[in-house]
Amino acid sequence: MVAHASSRRRAFRLALTATLLGIASGPALAQKGGDLSGVWQTETAGSTVRIARCGAGYCGTIAATPGPGLDSQNPDASLRSRKLVGVQIMQAGTPSGEGFEGSLYNPKDGKTYSGSLTPKGPDTVEVAGCVLSVICKRQTWRRMR
């Protein structure tokens, strides 16, 4: 009877340890291993961005935007009348920590910033655009299903 009880305790401890390890590592695995490809809703302006694999990282192009959707703030005057849908605004090709680093184009001001793309879960990603790698603006984008 003593051997049987110790077997059950050992099995229980093993199951508990496996469960705790699964809970602790689940979010990290989802962040690192999840594919970010898909259509994402931006936090502001009602735009959606299609993220797809691009080399070792990801690229993002505008899939939809409200209003006339022109690249009116582009520093290149010849591009100011182009439609934003289809314009690549993100190139996050360098793996870094749990995410990717690269550049982000902001059509609202026509500037390109250093940026990052960091998964926060299977359906959320943090997008950050930075000036001098110090002053950053962040948005949380949500995957559209």
UniProtKB/TrEMBL annotation:
Report whether Signal shows up as a keyword of the record: yes
Leader peptide range in chain numbering: 1-30
Keywords for this entry?
A: Signal
InterPro entries, per this entry? DUF2147
Highest rank taxon of the organism: Bacteria
Q: Cross-referenced PANTHER family, in alphabetical order? A: BLL6627 PROTEIN, BLR1215 PROTEIN
Please identify the protein, giving its name as recorded: Uncharacterized conserved protein, DUF2147 family
